[in-house]
Amino acid sequence: MTLPTTGRSWHLVARPQGWPVPEDFALREEPVRPPSAGEILVRNVHLSVDPYMRGRMNDVKSYVPPFRLDQPMDGGAIGEVIASEAEGIAVGDHVFHDLGWREFATLPSRYARPVSAEDAPLSAFLGVLGMPGLTAWAGLLETGGLTEGDVVFISGAAGAVGSVAGQIARLKGASRVIGSAGSAEKVARLTEEYGFDAAFNYKDASVGSQLREAAPDGIDLYFDNVGGGHLQAAIHASNVHARIVLCGMIAHYNATEPPPGPNNLMQLIAKRIRMEGLLVIDHEALRPRFVEEVSGWLRSGELHYPETVVNGFENTVDALLGVLRGENTGKMIVTL
240-268 pLDDT, tens per residue? Predict the structure, then answer.
């Protein structure tokens, strides 16, 4: 096989002010380096775009470094190995790695994780069996301490994490699972396809009033993907000893000024609410248990994993902007 000498990659060329625009990115041709000892060369097949990537466009210190200007961006990807100088990984194998946003990636094999289409469709390893799935599973069971009989509320419930979290809560014995989403179509899918007991469109009326109607007896666990008014409403609806898992705050990501925080934090004291941030990287040791349990649900058909697929590497930025606008249902995948 003749190896490629050049390939395209996406670069961040300007740090967005507020909402990103296509002009903040550039698609460029770059040399492709053949692998050295211990390395593999991968032709990417599926790319992941995720809300957290918006934070990496800002030049601020965080739990992951910011994207560098005029350098290839990165993110989760599934690719086919087309050249290998590493033991244990052969040409034709498929791997997960973190050098997405490019057509070809050369990397040490220790930074790649083999995956097999015999276990699940390859794209699933970017979603339900990947970072979003582990985030939902660990966030509910470890950080949130989900127990049988809990009333669970999930914001951003039609997204990659929220759609899986709601189903896991149901499978683990929650007495009621409630979700919020941004369209009537998404709300319908939550209840008709993913087994949520109730769902509402947060654009139709205040989150607080709709949550009170959906959870008249209050909530025991809130999985927060949105922040802002959703978090305030969830605190108000929380029962004594409720838990709040702070996974994401997409309502804040494109704000040019610090958004106002909830004004009812005193209720955390009165209700003895525990609120804790969630980073999936803290739970990597749980991956074997997570994969074993979730794979079983996939095989039995008990857990569905919605995907929104955008075809074409040249459309990767459009896919990311779509995620930030809430245009996806489930995991957003770019297929090359």
Answer: 999 999 999 888 878 777 777 799 999 99
Measured CA to CA, the distance from residue 218 to residue 221 in angstroms comes to 10
Cα 34 to Cα 59: distance, rounded to the nearest angstrom = 32
* Burial tier of 108 (Cβ tally within 10 Å: 0-12, 13-18, 19+): middle
Q: d(Cα 183, Cα 56) in Å, to the nearest integer?
A: 27
**Could you identify the residue written with the tokens 């470094």?**
65
Which pair of tokens denotes residue 302?
């008990």
302 three-class SS: coil
Pairing of the two strands 198-201 and 113-115: unpaired
Question: What DSSP letter does each residue of 61-100 carry, written as one string?
Answer: --SSPPPPBTSB--B-EEEEEEEE-STT--TT-EEEESB-
pLDDT average, residue stretch 327-336? 95
Tokens read off for 150: 């809990």
Task: State pLDDT tens for residues 6-27.
Answer: 999 999 999 999 999 999 999 9
Tell which phi-psi region holds residue 97, choosing left (phi > 0), alpha (psi between -120 and 50) or beta. beta
Contact call for residues 130 and 290 (beta carbons, < 8 A): no
Q: Determine the 3-state secondary structure of 146 from DSSP.
A: coil
Report the greatest alpha carbon distance in the chain.
67
Q: pTM for the whole thing?
A: 0.93
Task: Indicate the DSSP class of residue 297.
Answer: H
Q: Give the tokens for residue 263.
A: 């004004």
Q: Is 142 helix (H, G, I), strand (E, B) or coil?
A: helix
H or E element, residue 211: helix 207-214
Supply the Cα-derived Rg of the chain in whole angstroms. Answer: 20
List Cα–Cα distances, 275 to 133, 238, 265, 306, in angstroms. 21, 11, 11, 28
Tokens representing residue 232 in the block: 């305030």
